[in-house]
Amino acid sequence: MAIEAPAEELAYVAAPRDDGKPDNMCVVDLNEASGTYGQIINQLELGVRDEIHHFGWNACSAALCPYAPHPYVERRYLVVPALRGSHIYILDVKEDPKSPKLIKTLTADEVEERSGYTRPHTVHCGPEGIYISALASAGSEEGPGGIFLMDHYNFNILGQWEVERGSQSLSYDFWWHLGYDIAVTSEWGYPAMIENGVSLEDLGARKFGHKIHIWDIRHRKNIQTLDLGDDYQMILELRPAHDPTKAYGFVNAVLNMNDLSSSIWTWYKDGDAWGIQKIIDIPAQAPENPDDLPPALKDIGMIPPLVTDHILSLDDRFLYVSCWGTGELLQYDVSDPFNPKHTGTVEIGGITKSHPHPAAGPVSGGPQMVELSRDGKRLYFTNSLYVAWDNQFYPDGANGWMVKADIDPNGGLELDPNFFVGFGDSRAHQIRLQGGDSSSDTFCYS
Predict the structure, then answer these.
(1) Is 438 domain-assigned?
(2) 442 lies in a domain?
(3) Continuous segment of H or E residues that includes residue 112
(4) What DSSP element (H or E) covers 149?
(5) Are 404 and 212 in contact (CB under 8 A)?
(6) Is residue 439 in some structural domain?
(7) Segment 224-243 mean pLDDT
(8) Maximum C-alpha span of the chain
(9) What is this structure's pTM?
(10) Which DSSP symbol is given to 425?
(11) Which of 12-21, 326-335, 437-446 has the lowest mean pLDDT?
């Protein structure tokens, strides 16, 4: 049913800034019949240097799961975490979807006091509340990071989610297999390791995350840790199968310390336990002119792909992988989750290469945050990872943009030559599509 939903008419895009002006929540017109199609039609100012990040809806289909039903909650509000400022903003988009209204702000002090955490990162609507991950413990700036719960209705923070975390300390993304009562979490780094750019010292010491954790949702207990090995640094975005009867998913490893490649892994249920297997390697590339490399890569002499996001179509057939460093967006057929087939590539941006866009010419940055329409026909993506990291890897500037690729249902994709949304001096990060998209919902029934 979700695949057959009407096409999206709006996108909400997080637009952080680096110039002392407020971050914005931007509204982009996606209605092809509109006179303002492909333009920013509204902006809501939020905090200064907040780094608004992976925001989400207050409710989704997970609210209908049988063990924690909330049949009267409606998908009306965007819950927007500020990764650097630690605020959380609640935006109402029901009355006028084109003009979000700020109805509540939770201060950094409130977040820390009520949740025990700081640096909120990712929001997902869950069965019994809104789940929010955070990078660090309140007051420590270090571990453990984790997850806290927020009430669906009044947006009060209910408290820390974990009861028994085991060895888990680093935090990043989380998702779940609700039909199996299983949650999965991943690992990035502590604030000091990321907020002024990637700490090359910590990277060299292999201090970034290299594990995912399997949790018993009902008992909020870490039951298994899957270690990819510390050669693999920064294990980020989790994409479980949408079909609730399937017990597998995909996760990206940003950097292999031996050869600078990125990789995609499949986690899967293996009898009474869980396993993980690498399925895709994406190699680093040599620059055409080594003098064009940013200072962070001069001594290395190569361009790592820096796979920092990926998304799975609602039918679990296609996986889209963003290579922020090399300026590529890759499509794989993952109908067999252990034997992917590369079925398409588009190129835009990239370190030293800067593949141009037909409507805009040369661009800075590369494919980063990715979002897919529910029918799997339109792929939208932006170019900002995190302001300090943008400045580190794209020191000549990383002005925000959002583009679209059109998808062939049989495999393959093409960049839409006429769709280019420029964000001026703002960056462009997370995208949410009005009504829903391919990474917002959890399904309890096939």
Answers:
(1) no
(2) no
(3) helix 108-115
(4) strand 146-150
(5) no
(6) no
(7) 98
(8) 59
(9) 0.97
(10) T
(11) 437-446
Q: Please state whether 293 falls in left (phi above 0), alpha (psi between -120 and 50) or beta.
A: beta
Residue with tokens 């994406």, as numbered in its chain: 282
Strands 378-382 and 88-92: unpaired
322, amino acid identity:
S
Measured CA to CA, the distance from residue 363 to residue 167 in angstroms comes to: 42
Select the more confidently predicted residue: 127 or 136.
136
Residue 265 has pLDDT above 60, yes or no: yes
The two tokens of residue 412 are 């393959």
**Separation CA 315–CA 320 (nearest Å):** 13
Q: Which residue has the tokens 């000549």?
A: 396
Pair 103, 113: CB distance under 8 Å: no
Placement of tokens 């199968």 in the chain = 241
Residue indicated by tokens 């019949």: 33
Q: What is the CATH number of the domain that holds 271?
A: 2.130.10.10
For the chain, what is the domain count?
Answer: 1
DSSP H or E segment with residue 105? strand 101-106
Residue 402's domain comprises 2-433
Instruction: Please check whether residue 440 lies inside any domain of the structure.
Output: no
Let me know: does 431 contact 229? Beta carbons within 8 Å: no
Burial of 391 from C-beta contacts in 10 A (0-12 / 13-18 / 19+): middle
